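User: Structure please.
Assistant: Input sequence and predicted structure:
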Amino acid sequence: MRATPPEVVRAVKLLDLRTKRLVSGQFGGAYRAVFKGHGIEFAELREYQPGDEVRTIDWNVTARTRRPHVRRYVEERELSVLVLLDVSGSAWFGTQRQLKGQVAAELTAALVLAAARQNDRVGVIAVSDRVELLRPPRKGRRHALALARDVLALEPARRGTALTPAADAAGPALPQRGIVFVVSDFDAPDAERSLRRLALRHDVIAVPVEDPAEFSLPDVGIARLADPETGAGIEVDTSDPAVRVLFARRARAAREARDRMLQASGADVVRVTTDGGFLDPMLRYLRSRAGRRGG
């Protein structure tokens, strides 16, 4: 087995510390409020204490013992969380401090550690045009740390893109209803079909990862633009204003088409950018969703 690079070990430790603070703070409260368990489990029967809700009184036991008793329950979380991570060639693009793939990997690792700290089962499927990493949901901090390490150290064997292999693998990995985060730029022809399949059985959150340069072409003179997955390229004169306007128009149209596809798929959407990080968008999403549930 190949040794884990020291920088990956350090990154996992830092993420573990960050998620510990997050989970004990606003992020953890919002996560738990949104992703509740599927029921409640009887915990104990005890005597009534001031402040207990009257509706929890067990009247049969109260009548038999002649002292008021209440039933206490705990939430049955037992949630299963699966993160589908796109590691295709287009993920390894970026003009900010981090590439899209790096932001996506860190977000995946943070979700894994946060879920584990809530005692949820958590797993990961990383996909290019084939499954590159498959770890079914399990409980435990050790399992979560190993997942985070594997995700941050992953070097995909292929550069193509397809979400169908991940959707196929999600069935056996998550046989019962669970929570599925799909972290991708969704630049895949089968994205809508795959998301719809997942949303039929699971609670799906799509997380598109973007870089500002994907929507605005800088003026750098003659430049060669290459497809990161196929290698096909073309030379363009970026100093020509008409070229930059056309590029921006086509990029905007592509993003709008993708957003319509995500909305039609039945998944929730949280947009993350390489220049803004993932914490604030995730917190806004969780608070918004908690508000919808409350409403």
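The radius of gyration is 23 Å.
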